[in-house]
User: Which sequence fits this backbone?
């Protein structure tokens, strides 16, 4: 085996890494907005509230619908404070009751 020669660099015992400067981006953001620059970041869409509750609802149905109808369904469930499965059950029961009256 051959021995490596010393490179003469010395040790790293006295080495201190440079501290990075944190730059305040608020001033740059304000200047950009003043000159009409728009952010390239994608717009964040609010995610619906996830519900995790214990219930007897263990089957799943996937339906396609208009976005505004789905948002309405979610809003009704939120207003009543009930899970989607419970709202679906109430809606089906009501439709069945209406059909039996006709």
Assistant:
């Amino acid at each position: 085996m051959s021995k490596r020669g010393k490179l003469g660099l010395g040790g790293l015992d006295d080495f201190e890494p440079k501290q990075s400067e944190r730059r305040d981006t608020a001033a740059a953001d304000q200047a950009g907005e003043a000159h009409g620059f728009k952010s390239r970041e994608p717009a964040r869409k609010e995610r619906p509230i996830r519900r995790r509750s214990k219930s007897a609802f263990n089957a799943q149905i996937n339906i396609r619908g208009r976005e505004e109808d789905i948002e309405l369904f979610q809003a009704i469930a939120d207003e009543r404070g009930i899970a989607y499965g419970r709202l679906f059950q109430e809606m089906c029961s009501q439709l069945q009751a209406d059909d039996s009256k006709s």
Residues 84-101 form the longest helix (18 residues). The chain has a mean pLDDT of 84.
